[in-house]
Amino acid sequence: MAKNKNDLMDKIVSWAKRRGFIFPSSEIYGGFSAVYDFGPYGVELENNIKKFWWKTMVQKRDDIVGLDSCIFMHPKIWEASGHVGGFSDPLVECKKCNSRLRVDHLLEDIGVMADEKMSEEVINEIFSKNKDKVKCPNCGSSNFSDVKKFNLLVKANLGNFTEDWTKDPTYLRGETCQGIYVNYKNVVDTTRVRIPFGIAQIGKAFRNEITARQFIFRTREFEQMEMQYFTHPDKEMEAYEKLREYRWQYYMDLGLKKENLRWLKHENLVFYAKEAYDIEYKYPFGFKELEGVHARGDYDLTQHTKFSGKDLSYNDPVTKEKYIPHIIESSVGVGRTALAVLCDAYTEEKVKDEERIVLKLNKELAPIKIAVFPLLKNKPQLVEKSFEIYSELKEDYMCEFDDNGNIGKRYRRQDEIGTPYCVTVDFETLEKDNSVTVRDRDTMEQERIKIEELKDYFQKKFK
Ligand code: ATP
C-alpha cells in the first residue's frame, strides 16, 4: 500500500504507464524532457475532463460562448500582454553539477517566498541572503551562479524564411487567453452576447519551463481550459465572487475530495490585478496551484487597444454608456486536472486477503464505461453472445470487450483503469434466463439484469 507521498507519486507514474494512460515522450529515443504523451486510456480521460469543463462553462451557461483561436498569433500580441518583456522565471545554475534551477522554488523549499514578478535585483538580493541555507536538490551543493531571468516564451520561425529569424520571431502561445482578448470585439459584433458575458476556450500552450518536474504537473507543452468574463467596471468584484463559488462547485461535481482542495489568496498582486486566488490541490508533493481565478481589471483590453490602435471599448446598447470592460478569469490545465483526478481516485485496498488497485473515478470521467466478458473464452456461444451485447452497448458508451485470462483477472484490470461496470455472459444467460451479471467497480456487488433491460439500466446508472 502507498505509505508516504513519494511512494504514491512513484506508484502513480508507473501505474499510468503500465496501464496505458501516460507515456514519457519519445521514449525509444531516450526521452524528451518535460513532455508527456497520453495513451489510449489517458486520452479518454483527458477528453472526458474537457467535456466536463465545457459542459459546466459553456453548455450550462446562457452567458458564456466558446472559441477556438490559433496557437500562432501576431507577435505584437505578446508584447502587448507583457510576455515578451516580462514573462520570465528567475534561474540559477549549480556550479557543481550544472543543474539549472528555479530560484523561487529553491527559496520556497526553505520557507522564503519570492515571486517571479520581482525584479532580477530584488530576487538576487533575497537569494544572496539565503544562499547558505539553499542546497541543490540534485547534488547538495550550495555553490550557485547569480540569478538571471529567463523568458518562458517559445520562439518559432513560422512564415519567416530568413537565416536570422530569431531576431524577429513568432511565438507559440504561452497562454490561451490572449486569443480570447483579441477576438472579444468579433464575438460582440457577431453574436447576441451582452455584457456581462464570457468566452471559453480549450487549447495548447507552451512555456520554456526551467525546471519541469513532478510528472505532468509542470510540462513545456500543456493544455489550458480558460474562461474570460467581461464585466462592467462596477460589477467586476461581484462577478468575481460568483465565479469563485462556481469554480469551487465544479471541483465538487468533478468528484475531488473536499479536504484535498483549498483557496490560496495572492499576497503580491501584479499592479493591475484587483484580487487573485488559486485553487490548490493536495498533490503527493504538497498543496500546489491547480487553477487560477483572477480579477484582472481593464488591463488586457487597455493594452490591446494601445498596441493595436483599435478601440476595444464596449457600447452598452441600453444605457448608451461606453467603457473598457473589466475581466475576471478562470484558468486551469488539463494535465494538472488529470493528475489531481488520478491522485484522488487511485486506491489500493484489500479484498478477501487479496490486494486490488482500483481507480474510484467519477463515472463521467472513466475512460471505459462498460466492459463486456464471456465467462469462458473457449465457448463460442458465450463469446458470440457477449460480443453481440458489446456491439450494442458501444453505440452509446465507450466499451471494451475482453476474453483474455480468467474472469478475476479481467475484473482487476478494469478496476485498475476505473471502469464502473463489467457485464459477464455465462451459461445461465444462454440456457436459463437471458440475463447477465453486472458488477459494480466500487462495491464489487453483482446483480442479474435481463439483456433487454440493459440499455435502460445503464441509462439510469450514467444519468
Ligand atoms: P505556476 O505558478 O505553477 O507556474 P502559473 O501561475 O504560471 O503556474 P498560470 O499562468 O496562471 O499558471 O496558468 C493557468 C493554469 O495553467 C495553471 O493554474 C495550471 O493549471 C496550468 N499551467 C500553467 N503552467 C503549466 C505547466 N507548465 N504545465 C502544466 N500546466 C500548467
Summary?
With 463 residues, the chain is of the alpha+beta class. Helices cover 33% and strands 27% of the residues. The chain has helices at residues 5-18, 40-59, 76-80, 83-86, 103-109, 120-130, 177-181, 184-190, 236-254, 299-308, 334-345, 380-393, 407-416, 427-433, 454-461, and strands spanning 22-24, 36-38, 64-67, 88-93, 100-102, 148-151, 154-156, 170-172, 197-206, 221-231, 261-265, 275-283, 286-297, 314-315, 322-323, 326-333, 346-351, 354-359, 370-374, 399-401, 421-425, 435-440, 446-450.
Low-confidence stretches: none
- Provide the gyration radius in Å: 26 Å
Q: Write down the overall mean pLDDT.
A: 93
Strand residue content: 25-35%
Give the bound compounds: adenosine-5'-triphosphate
Shape category: globular
CATH architecture of the largest domain: 2-Layer Sandwich
Q: Ends: how far apart?
A: 33 Å
Subunit arrangement of the protein: single chain
Query: Largest beta sheet, briefly?
Result: 7 strands, mixed
Helix content, binned percent: 25-40%
Task: Determine the CATH topology of the largest domain.
Answer: BirA Bifunctional Protein, domain 2
* Spatial arrangement of strands, main beta sheet: 3-9-10-16-13-12-11
- How many domains? 3
* Secondary structure: number of strands: 23
Count of separate DSSP helical elements: 15
The CATH homologous superfamily of the largest domain corresponds to Bira Bifunctional Protein, Domain 2
Briefly note the structural class of the backbone. alpha+beta
CATH class of the largest domain: Alpha Beta
